[in-house]
Amino acid sequence: MRGDARAAAHAGSFYPASPEALRRLVDAQLAEAAGLGDDGTRPGAGAQPGGGPAHDRSPDVPGSPPRLSRPAGLVVPHAGLVYSGRVAASAWGLLREEPPDAIVIAGTNHYWPGLEGVAVWPTGAWETPLGEVPVAASLAADVLALGDPFGALPAAHRREHSIEVQLPFIARACPGVPIVPLLVSFASSEAALSAGATLGRLLAELRSGDVEVVLAASSDFAHYPPAAEAEAVTRSLVPPLLALDGRELARREEAIRRSGRAGLACGMCGIEPVLFAVGAFGAMALATGRLLAAGTSADVPGADPDRTVGYAAIAFDVAPS
Fold this sequence. Notes:
By secondary structure, the protein is α/β, with parallel strands linked by helices. It is 33% helix and 17% strand. The protein has a domain at 14-35 and 50-57 and 68-221 and 266-303: LigB-like (Protocatechuate 4,5-dioxygenase, Chain B, 3-Layer(aba) Sandwich). The longest helix is centred in the middle third of the chain and has 20 residues, at 189-208.
């Protein structure tokens, strides 16, 4: 393996290690999210497009606006694909018809203690059972040139799953599109919002020059309450996220985290990369978000309904001028 290539750390656990099994799973989830049948065609009248459990259990939140363009920002879940894949596919599938020039992915830091700032993977490629996903080295260099708190730290990425589980969807929805992997970890919401705004100004400049860059934040929602409680957490947190109100999102999530409710460890596993992305989306002048799909791990047959994780996928479009 090349020194600048990252090995797939979670093949066989978070998703199938077999290329054929992974391809079948991801393609089926992308087709379901697009409202397609197993044969790739749309279902007949009376069918429920995208009507898997993850879609039927979407939380009752204020209606999202219609699509304005190909999205420039996404929020996607990062659990095992059998659990969160249907929801994630509803976001990544939006890039199929018009793939962007690059995708920046802000991941949740689960494994690297003491990280403060944004760890960039700068060069090479990330290996998957479906082939390599290249790193956009020139764009990564532009991100590193922003200076503190952005720094090259490939070691922090080696065990992390929050970015890795997005790659099968990218490989199938927009093959060949390069990525810039970022691990985001901040002690304060204001620091995350500020760093995101710095990145957002860079991405806005690139987009103004017709370089189409999409920024995706990888986060799950509530851990580990019963399903009804997880859905209630999503209902609480989605509205300020749609409105790009990072401070209110942080306030609500902290209140949930401190509530002491049985089984509830957090409202959002990945609040830091999401706040980072919210800061960036604001600097990119993106429009109010639209909820694409939501659900919980209990939507999977046989899963425990009393100990669940919540998922949501959200898209942010370019605001009309």
